[in-house]
Amino acid sequence: MFADSPQGGDDGRRSDASENRPWLLHTAKRKTTAGPAARAADPDRLLEEVASEANLARALLNVIRNKGAPGVDGQTVEEAEAQAPRLLAVLRRDLLAERFRPGDIRRVWIPKPGGGQRGLGIPNVVTRVVQQAVLQVLEPIYEPSFHTSSHGFRPNRGAHTAIAEATGYLEAGYRVVVDLDLAKFFDRVHHQRLLDRMSQRITDRRVLNLVRRMLKAAVVMPDGTRVAVEEGTPQGGPLSPLLSNIVLDEFDQELARRGLRFVRYADDANIFVRSERAGIRIMASLRRFLEHRLRLQINEEKSAVRKPEQVHFLGFRFLCNDRASPNTGITLSDKAKRAVMNTIRELTPPNWGRSINSCMEALSRYLNGWIAHYRLCTPEAARELGAIDAHVRRRLRAIIVRQRKRSRFLYRHLLARKISKKAAAGAAYCGKGSWVKSNRPGMTKAYPPAWFCERMVSLKTRWSELNTPRVSDQLTLAL
């Protein structure tokens, strides 16, 4: 970290972060020190482009938009924005003088959907700005040469394009999948090998040295222990995804050289072949390539030669049961179903103390985003989406039951909702807990599906809306 930065020697004067936003926007619109033409003509001066005022301003704006937690130093993005002009001036000076030193990385652990924990490395805000600035310069250099079957962490690509390409291979008759998962990939990237590969395209040694210093930044564990880093590119920083794609592009090019059909998203890759025998042979060959050439390990528990129905990829599962039909169904993976159920459980706690409407609002915000990701599901998923909707309604009814506290209060409440005395008594006085009462006829009549659909998102309905062409699109196709 630079000595007289806002982290190292703040003079105590703070300005409102919002006051600097116009300045940042104006500065970010300026031309960079070296545009694409200059970069091609003088590749030895990439650091000047990284450290240009406009590039750093754009980097800070991107870090602000992405928000994120503070690093080891505790500085927030709001504090960085409040000091933007001075912060960027010091950053520019220290980068050009090669005095910038990344701060330590804060290690945090987050639960994985399938169980266990995933380690993230959170750089401090200033380091994130520098990583973002480097990303903005290096990504245009590497992006055109990346393979088209690589979909993770790339502009205009993502899970949807990956699933679409995979579906195309399955429908073309490649219905055996070599399902590869790399073991602890982000923790095992070999630093020198990565830098050697980067040096084939990046001749500015100053940029390579900057990347090296960021890779070698020490990690501070949750207990405060400071650990030196010898390998890996920790998830959590803006530059890590690009570096991972640079490493695995060699794998992509090897698959392409062999004429294989594949889809890769980060450290998950599916190779599509026509027979199980071919899949077994390819799995053995790729294991040797990954271990000996890239120094990476296959996750043996998660990797195998599988039928499409057994593959869980990016939260989706493929359905190709009918060999006579080329069509491929897309539904939810088991892991995706468990994850959404767990989140619904967290958003509908038994002790919910606010109004039921506020609970439905929180659920709607989450479910809207969730179904946007899973809109690629085909009609085969309708039953599963309907089952999730029913589960949501039942949990909400259970909250309504618990909020009435006593059976007689629930009985009066149901009568007020025009439920017959018999049905109301059957729900209120059944002698069971709130979960059983939530599914009794008195409760389901008082709060039918239509009542919830008027007030919150229905996954099945929203999925149908997302997959129904707009009238304007239908007219265009007709013409």
TrEMBL record:
Gene Ontology BP terms: defense response to virus
Catalytic activity annotation: DNA(n) + a 2'-deoxyribonucleoside 5'-triphosphate = DNA(n+1) + diphosphate
Signal peptide (from-to): none
Region annotation (Disordered) ranges: 1-41
Protein name: RNA-directed DNA polymerase
InterPro entries: DNA/RNA_pol_sf, Group_II_RT_mat, GrpII_Intron_Splice-Mob/Def, Mat_intron_G2, Reverse_transcriptase_msDNA, RT_dom
GO MF term list: metal ion binding; RNA binding; RNA-directed DNA polymerase activity
